[in-house]
Amino acid sequence: QIFLGALSFVYFAKALSGSYLKSTITQIERRFDIPSSLVGVIDGSFEIGNLLIIILVSYFGAKLHRPRIIGAGCLIMSAGTFLIAMPQFFMGRYKYERFPSIMNSTGSLSPCLQEKSQIPHSALEKSQGKINAGCEKEAGSSMWIYVLLGNLLRGIGETPIQPLGITYIDDYAIEENAALYIGCVQTLAIIGPIFGFLLGSLCAKLYVDIGFVDLDSVTITHKDVQWVGAWWLGYLIAGMISVLAGIPFWFLPKHLPKPEGRKDSSSSSEQSKFITEDNKERQKSYQQHVKIAELAKGKCLEFVSSLLNFLPSLKNLFENPVYFLYLCASIIQFNSLIGMVTYKPKYIEQQYGQTSSKSNFVIGLINIPAVAFGIFSGGLIMKKFRINVLGAAKLSLGSSFFGYLLLLSLFAMGCENSDVAGLTVSYHGTKQITHYEQALFSECNSGCVCSKNDWDPICGENGITYISACLAGCQASNGSGKSTVFYNCSCVGILESSSRSSSAVVGPCQKGNECPKMFLYFLVISVITSYTLSVGGTPGYVLLLRCIKPHLKSFALGIYTLAVRVLAGVPAPVYFGVAIDTTCLKWGSKRCGGRGACRLYDSRALRYVYLGLTLVLGTVSIFFSIAVLWVLRKRSTLQEETTSDSRRGTGLTKKRKDNFVNSDHLIQTTYWPEKETRL
């Protein structure tokens, strides 16, 4: 019971930290000024760490002290989680782009600088000094490597938890209760992501340098594109939870006493008897203190024997068309789902103008429970209707088909681009067709000395967002911080409708009035889609188990897990990130030159790329699923024909026997109930 409680808590801890990483994707991107493709590499490093030692842990771990290995894995996992948060304490305070008068209001400064000499000499020196200091610390921009290494370490630490924990329960639990215990552990694993995304929502509302700076001096809000939440705080919390989760395992024994129901009982399965005898033999061998050299020799022979059996077993698996086709379908579908889940918070933020906090809250409180309920419903349907392998394939295919069909409707539930002068609309308010950096400059701001690299958006009273107060042609400002108001903005007053007013306020303008309604529709369809796709999870798993020979089940599951992680878990976040980067309209600039994180995306292009890539992969996986169903039906038809022929043969034999019996008076011809059935 203690082991079961501890393992459940560990499953909760690892699921929480993994989902929290997904919730901080956009925060990490902005904090380290890196593109989405690089964030995808960081996300995939967990799977790489897991794959590095999975074979060693699975093979040698079962022969060592399993609880302590799990405890050590928890410590490594917590160390990796702490390492992810460390850059916050070494790379200095977060600096965002803001006009000098907003940063401190000691004097009124004109945003539209006619000449460089208009800047006060002291302010210019101070600004230049900050830039030089920033360039000296530019090595801090490579701190994302520590996040990658920390996530890699998390993957290594998580490796022993599942294989060693589940086998320990199966070895020492009462056989009838083992499935229930494993179900409890998996349930806690589903609850973990809910808390992970909710923690991400909470931390995203807190400013990144909370506790280090005066929050009153912060001139941006959590709705700003440049806002970075306290992403590091959640990793410290997750790391502490991992440490606490690992403590009980150091005090648990290597072996537990076998339950009475599994001690040489005739009711035990052959597998249980084999395991029991194997454990006894192992204990005897340890008691005899076998020499290390002989043990090493035995292990080498065992390893060579396993290696020789590996290739024939692998060939046997891949020659099974159902297994091979289902493996291909799963790999492609997981590419689709992993890419979609990884960048879902980012999509909600950029498409619907929502904050990071709200995006994570929605996913944690609505989407994850829908997935859990879908998995449970799939298992319930399988049990209630006693669905066979062919039925499981149909249910899995139907789930995928209707899930991706629902996803298709999301193309119509997007928001249009925000009106940003020089990027999505011209300075005269007409829609832009092509996007050129030169379009940022116009006659209305030609008299200003402005930089095209700045991103300090303001909202004009005409409802158009301007990249900076300088590019808006603003001549004066009043107020400080978040309440700064700009006046006499020549570009704002260029439209006839706003000729009487030429002021602007800090921050970008809100998206269109239809966007909140579209976001609500998106949530409803997203929840239904998550549920529908998840219903096919359990039937698909049952199909995988039943389409292969019993002695190859463990090996087949291992190859399946390995293939999905290598071919989906690692590459999907990377190429999804690369595709999303192609939709960027305005890239940020680092202090010493070079491209930073994206500040503004093309909403329509982002929608087509994100949903399109997900749907294309999903459609390909459906074709493979149809092929699986076709092969199973073909096998089923052949089996029915064989059974029919067998029955016909039995019928003819029976008639001949009846004639023989009737003609032979030596054999008793009295009526015998169930005689035909027995024959």
TrEMBL record:
GO terms for cellular component: basolateral plasma membrane. Gene3D superfamilies: 3.30.60.30, MFS general substrate transporter like domains. It catalyses: 3,3',5'-triiodo-L-thyronine(out) = 3,3',5'-triiodo-L-thyronine(in); L-thyroxine(out) = L-thyroxine(in); L-thyroxine sulfate(out) = L-thyroxine sulfate(in). The chain crosses the membrane at residues 41-62, 69-90, 178-208, 228-252, 323-341, 361-381, 393-413, 518-545, 557-580, 609-632. SUPFAM superfamilies: Kazal-type serine protease inhibitors, MFS general substrate transporter. Residues 3-636 form the Major facilitator superfamily (MFS) profile domain. Keywords: Cell membrane, Disulfide bond, Glycoprotein, Ion transport, Lipid transport, Membrane, Transmembrane, Transmembrane helix, Transport. It is a multi-pass membrane protein. Its main location: membrane. The keyword Transmembrane applies. Pfam families: Kazal_2 (PF07648), OATP (PF03137). InterPro entries: Kazal_dom, Kazal_dom_sf, MFS_dom, MFS_trans_sf, OATP. GO terms for biological process: monoatomic ion transport; sodium-independent organic anion transport. It is found in: Cell membrane. GO terms for molecular function: bile acid transmembrane transporter activity; sodium-independent organic anion transmembrane transporter activity. Residues 260-281 are annotated as: Disordered. Residues 438-493 form the Kazal-like domain. Belongs to the organo anion transporter (TC 2.A.60) family. NCBIfam families: oat. This is Solute carrier organic anion transporter family member. The gene is Slco1c1_1.
